[in-house]
Amino acid sequence: MNALTSAQLLAEATPLPTWTREQKLEFAIDALVVADRPKPVIYNTVRDIENETLDLDTVPVARTIFEPIAKELNKHGIPTGPTLGAVMRSLELTRRQMHELACYCNEDSEVMLGTQAMQHLAHLIDFPDL
Asked: Which pTM value belongs to this model?
């Protein structure tokens, strides 16, 4: 039988914080605000995010608005992997909501500013059923 270290015992005994969906969305907004300082960041949009056949667990968050969001969620103890699917589950978003946040077709552009996503995230907090 393997003996657990005190750090392992503490990790097992320490419950993960529980955050509401609204709080997680606020963390996402905070991540984009911080990333935009001292100057706005230009992120890649995501092609075909609305396509149901696209496995979002295979699409990396790198260079998209979801990269700083995933880091922020992890910082708050919300385990979030480096894929769009992981972020979608962590933020409790639907595929349609992910589409509204980051699809290239929204502005017909391959890039976007974090401020655009912040507005969509704030809208999801005010109108959670959209």
From this structure: 0.83
pLDDT in tens, 1-42: 566 676 665 556 556 668 999 999 999 999 999 998 888 999
Measured distance CA(13)–CA(4) in Å, rounded: 12
Based on its alpha-carbon atoms, the radius of gyration of the chain, rounded to whole angstroms, reads 16
Is the separation of the CB atoms in 106 and 100 below 8 Å?
A: yes
Place of tokens 């769009």: 84
* Phi–psi pair at 32, nearest 5 degrees: -75, -35
Residues β-bridged to residue 112: 43
Domain range summary for the chain, segments of one domain joined by + = 19-126
Q: 96-121: per-residue pLDDT in tens?
A: 999 989 988 877 889 999 988 898 89
